[in-house]
């Protein structure tokens, strides 16, 4: 006998087609839902995770900085002159640290804005963060602090105090990461590559560093830049007297740490940090966030808050203090104009 054929009525065909469409719809809806969830996840960032990532980026960059200095393979170049006429150095340490730090953050959170001091042309690193959060962060910071990626700007300094780095003045050298939300510094990380110490602060949440027990603002010790000083010495003396102790030091990150409880014997200590010339935001954002997390302040010399969105530089000078009457300090400063410094 010949095999019997299967005949479908028009109703059977319609039902079959509807079932097929239903299966396809549910499969597609599942994929679409998964993609939407993934899209939403990428568009928001948990700030606790971003703090841990920032710490890892600073440490990885710091390893490159230390390795290249110890191997003496700096490949030192000049990027030109600063506004004060000092030579602005560039080394392989700056570039390699930039690649580690920039691409670790960007590969993990592609949608956030990352501003770095350096702009290496080489291919990016393939590294992606492991999402391991250090115990010290888990113990102090709760999760669930989601922020839309478009509100975040990350400022990284792959090697702060490059001039001192070339002179092998290791204590001044740091790597830094700062997270700003809507222009306000929220998370700051300062890492010392040659000691392995990492300071961090999360505004409103906590920090792993503390202020000193007391500060002298009547006759303060003032820490200033050793390589971008401008007319800072006379400026400080007018404000606080000719006998004011002035401490020249390299690196904005180092100078902020000088305002806190010292972490090692080589760390200078000061009561106030003053800068009177143009300074880049990747130099100061991390320190600003750490000070804010401890109740301190970093402002322009006129007492204005610094906005960490938009342009890369701060033209208003710098006054940083902690556990003091910051407004009273601002009033003691002489009239200041950026173009006269």
Polypeptide structure, described:
- The chain has 341 residues and is an alpha+beta fold.
- It has two domains: 46-207, Fructose-1,6-Bisphosphatase, Chain A, domain 1, CATH 3.30.540; 221-340, D-Maltodextrin-Binding Protein, domain 2 (3-Layer(aba) Sandwich).
- Helix content is 36%, strand content 23%.
- The chain is built from nine helices and 17 strands.
- The chain has helices at 10-43, 47-71, 92-108, 135-140, 162-166, 232-240, 252-257, 281-293, 326-332, and strands at 44-46, 77-81, 87-90, 113-116, 146-148, 152-160, 174-181, 184-192, 197-202, 206-207, 221-225, 245-249, 272-275, 279-280, 297-299, 313-314, 318-321.
- Strands 4-6-7-8-9-10 form a six-stranded mixed beta sheet, with helices on both faces. Strands 12-11-13-17-15 form a five-stranded mixed beta sheet, sandwiched between helices. Strands 1-5 form a two-stranded antiparallel sheet.
- Strand 7 (174-181) and strand 8 form a beta hairpin.
- Helix 2 (47-71) runs antiparallel to helix 3.
- Residues 23-41 have low confidence and may be disordered.
Question: Which structural traits does this protein have?
Answer:
five-stranded mixed β-sheet; inositol monophosphate phosphatase activity; metal ion binding; CysQ/Inositol_MonoPase; Fructose-1,6-Bisphosphatase, Chain A, domain 1; single chain; D-Maltodextrin-Binding Protein, domain 2; 2 domains; 36% helix; 341 residues; 9 helices
């Amino acid at each position: 006998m010949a095999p019997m054929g299967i005949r479908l009525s028009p109703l059977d065909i319609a039902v079959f087609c509807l079932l097929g469409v239903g299966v396809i719809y549910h499969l597609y809806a599942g994929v679409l839902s998964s993609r939407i969830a993934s899209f939403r996840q990428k568009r928001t960032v948990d700030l606790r995770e971003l703090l841990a990532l920032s710490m890892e980026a600073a440490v990885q960059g710091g390893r490159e900085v230390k390795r290249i200095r110890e191997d003496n393979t700096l490949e030192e170049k000049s990027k030109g002159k600063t506004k004060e006429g000092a030579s602005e150095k560039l080394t392989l340490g700056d570039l390699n640290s930039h690649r580690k730090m920039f691409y670790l953050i960007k590969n993990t959170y592609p949608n956030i804005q990352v501003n770095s001091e350096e702009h290496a042309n080489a291919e990016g690193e393939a590294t992606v963060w492991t999402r391991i959060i250090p115990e010290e962060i888990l113990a102090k910071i709760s999760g669930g602090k989601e922020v839309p990626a478009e509100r975040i700007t990350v400022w990284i300094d792959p090697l702060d105090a490059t001039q001192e780095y070339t002179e092998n003045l290791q204590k001044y050298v740091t790597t830094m990461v700062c997270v700003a939300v809507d222009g306000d510094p929220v998370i700051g990380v300062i890492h010392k590559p040659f000691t392995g110490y990492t300071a961090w602060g999360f505004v409103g949440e906590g920090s792993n560093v503390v202020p000193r027990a007391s500060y002298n603002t009547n006759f303060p010790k003032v820490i200033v830049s050793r390589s971008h000083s401008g007319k800072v010495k006379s400026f400080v003396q007018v404000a606080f007297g000719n006998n004011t102790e002035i401490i020249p030091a390299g690196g904005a990150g180092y100078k902020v740490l000088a305002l806190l409880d010292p972490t090692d014997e080589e760390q200078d200590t000061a009561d106030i940090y003053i800068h009177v010339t143009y300074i880049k935001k990747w130099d100061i954002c991390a320190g600003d966030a750490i000070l804010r997390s401890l109740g301190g302040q970093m402002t322009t010399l006129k007492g204005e808050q610094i906005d960490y969105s938009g342009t890369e530089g701060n033209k208003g000078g710098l006054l940083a203090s902690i556990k003091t009457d910051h407004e009273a300090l601002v009033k003691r400063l002489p009239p200041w104009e950026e173009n006269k410094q």
